[in-house]
Amino acid sequence: MKTKLFFIFAVAIFAGLAGTASGQTNTDVLIKNATVMTAAKGTLTNTDILIRKGKIDKIGKNISAANARVIDATDKYVTPGIIDAHSHAMLDAINEGSLSVTSMARTRDVLNPTDPSIYQALAGGVTAANLLHGSANPIGGLNTVVKFKYGRPIEEYLIPGAPPGIKFAMGENVKRGRQPARYPATRMGTLEVMRDAFERARDYKRKWDDFRAGKTRVPPKKSFELDPLVEVLEGKRLVHAHGYRADEHLNLMKLAKEFGFTVATLQHGLEAYKIAPEIAKFGAGVSIFVDYWGYKLEAYDTIPYNAYILWKNGVVVSINSDSDERIRRLNLDAGKTMKYGGVPEEEALKMVTLNPAKQLGISKMTGSIEVGKDGDIAIWSAHPFSVYTRAEMTLIDGQVFFDRAKDIAMRETLKQERERLEKNEANLPPEKRLKKPEKPDGDTKADETKPEETPTPAIEGGIDR
Amino acid sequence: MKIKNIQRLTNYCFRTFLSFIAVGIFASAAFSQNGGSQQNVTGTPGTFAITNARIVTVSGAVIENGTMVIQDGKISGIGANASIPQNAEKIDGTGLSVYPGMIDAGTNMGLLEIGNGAAGTVDVAETGDINPNARAILGINPNTSHINVTRVNGVTMAHSMPAGGIISGQSAVINLNGATQDAMSVVPEFALVVNFPPISTFGGFNPLTGPRILDFSQAVKRRDERVKSLKEAFEKAKRYADVKEAVSKNPSLPKPDMDLSLEAMIPYVTGQKPVIFAAQRSRDIRGVIKFVEEMKLKTILYGGAEAWEETEGLKKNNIAVIFNQIHNNPLSDDDPYDSNFESPSKLQKAGIKFCVSTGNNGANVRELPYQAGIASAFGLSKDEALKSVTLYPAQILGVSDRVGSLEVGKVANIVVADGDILEVRTKVKYLFITGRKIPLTSRHTEFFDSFKDRKLGNE
Question: Which positions 248-307 of A are in contact with B (Cβ < 8 Å)?
């Protein structure tokens, strides 16, 4: 894990506050003279966008607005802010893997608004993300959909009106051996855990329905485990189902049909291309890596043409990161779908903007550049699919949360700040401190006899992919 | 369903008897066409002329409209007026660009097929800390699917390194083509790979209480002890080399017993061949510099996240950097967000010999051009970015007399693409490795062909 020395914290927080200083006021913003890739209605050249009270107010030529902050975007490209439908950024804990069903666990309770990866994602043009529970259990915890309002209180990250969701998972991560042993250990058991949970949820719902209809006098015992599953049965909570093999997805879709619920996204779906017509007929979205593969056995059959085949079959496809690293370059990942199979440019852009917004149920608010939508926007130095591009500015609700020019201008100040903090007594190495440091806790001898290095990462593929 | 690319370990979904028959028939057909197995199609040799193409030589000026001639595995002509042999297969290069094949100088190509869940495919790390006699060339699987997937994206050569322990073993430079290890091999034993012991405060992991963090001074002590044992290994090998040399001059001296481990280190401790040290942090890179100054080694640095801070020492000791950090978040939370993107340009400005590498085990080495592209977005010129994945890795790997640029007499490792080869949207149209025209097929194109037109009811 990251070394979190005091001064690093201090500098990071300072950087965060300073970096978003411009976002503190709610002024109108006028972006001038850009090439605007709307992700809805084509690409518009020499176009202005006026954002008023956080919403896109006007899109057109020669717009003027008194008192608006003007951003000159001549020779620059503007896209909707990128949306990642699968991320674990901000989460201080990812897996509650102790039980097979952990629908009572909420990612909302472990959000860290000072995670530096938020800022790094903003610097890749990302404005919103689906923060998912991990994939340790067939039915995992509840996810949270946020906008990356770095430097703001946690409440402001939450998107009003974003439907709630839940994580399901199948395959190797669920099966993986654990101590103590936990059911299920096979794909057979995984499906049975899901079936059992939904049978219980159905019984639980019937008991509540009976109580509410006056058929029984005593209310059933409240279940934090089953309440979210009842919401799934009632169509009030989105299902995001992690899986790799085509058969897993087919079996989940059968189960969903049987119990009468829908699936918002098949997450990962590395073999989704093998069953694209079935997925299209069922109506699930699919959220995939564009070309990341082979890191485990069940990731061996995917192909970078996955997005193209799904798109051609009419499936709503999004390209996700599932990684604090990859999230910084989803624009390039979208561009790759043009190479592999030949997804048209606007459809490719939608895979990291409008399509994830649709999958997360927030497309009425964000995901494309259209009048009335939130001012969630990325400004690029060159075409967003070019390797030579840089995100220059990222706006959320019309407020600037990343500004490359400002970031660079701040670096000297931050360096001095860091040097000053490093000289602070508390941050000096023990031998240079005036006061003698207290003895470290624990048996240090054990540390010496049992040294463990972080190994060179020859084997990749995190526990949650 | 058309089934082609059967893999030994993952044919779980293709188990039917009929499939095996179909694969057998197809594989034998492929063999006669391509001179290789279906798993590793090795292409066809011949004389080829690519005409009317934009030729990006890398070592010289771009030729806007020229011809490139490939004969006997080599480049035999380049230029606006290059003469075309009568027997040449002509390829119309109108609208296309010709590039030297790209080279990834930091991979585990062929040593690992699937990292998790298929331990039988993993040959990256030997048991124990000191394994100079472990040779990558003996573990590389010529039939790995990674090879075809990588080369169809324009990467034609890779440096494959073992990765375990402290002295991991010896690396190999390979062409991404060939039915056998010998056929792929370019430099079978290129360098000795060393994971330089880092100063790490990580003191083990307890599942209940999480990671244990060591006091920094303790971490330094632990590092020093490990460096001491590394130094002892080198000194022992040096003495062994001295004894062997003395015996060769004076056969009457007692001959030392053969020690495979020490024997393997001779070319490295005597400075004939390079030692690759993996290190990322400044403090560890300083440790490497101090170590190699003392031991007088020919050195290459692998990793190099903070190499830009140590350019003075690197330059003084003529240490090149294989930089593999583009697809990594900054090392420290308070580093600028683009610190890794900017590193290559900082190394270049400081006059350090460097190249951009994926550092990937194989599956994702095809991302190499895009990583160089990102380095270019953050300071490196487009020319330098291209060099950082062609000529510069060739120089660092000691093969620039043969590959890395388009020049008459060089090996014909050539990529023909419909645009800038570093861009994600660019498509590779033709591919040559050692002058053989390679089909643009891979495990991925084969699955694509099998499933792209599948309809409901077509089970």
Answer: 273-274, 276-278, 281, 291-301, 303-305
Q: For residue A251, what are the contacts with CB-CB under 8 A and spacing of at least 6?
A: A170, A187, A191
pLDDT mean values, one per 10 residues, chain A (465 residues): 42 44 68 98 98 97 95 98 98 95 98 97 98 97 98 96 98 90 96 98 98 96 98 98 98 98 98 98 98 96 98 98 98 98 98 98 98 98 98 98 97 92 83 64 44 42 52
Give the C-alpha distances (Å, rounded to integers) separating B457 from A277, B408, B453.
9, 55, 12
- Dist CA A332 CA A339 (whole Å): 11
Q: Is B363 an interface residue toward A (CB < 8 Å)?
A: yes
Q: How many helices (H) and strands (E) does chain A have?
A: 14, 16
Radius of gyration of chain B (CA): 24
Number of C-beta neighbours around residue B135 at 10 A: 17
The reply to whether residue B332 touches residue A386, judged by beta carbons under 8 angstroms, is no
Separation of alpha carbons A384 and B106, rounded Å: 28
Tokens of A251: 């079996």
* Whether the Cβ atoms of residue B124 and residue B138 lie closer than 8 Å to each other: no
What ipTM goes with this model?
A: 0.91
Q: Mark which residues 422-441 of B lie under 8 Å from A by CB.
A: 422-427
pLDDT score for A223 = 98
Cα–chain-centroid distance for residue A405? Answer: 26
Q: Tell me phi and psi for residue A383, to 5 degrees.
A: -50, 130
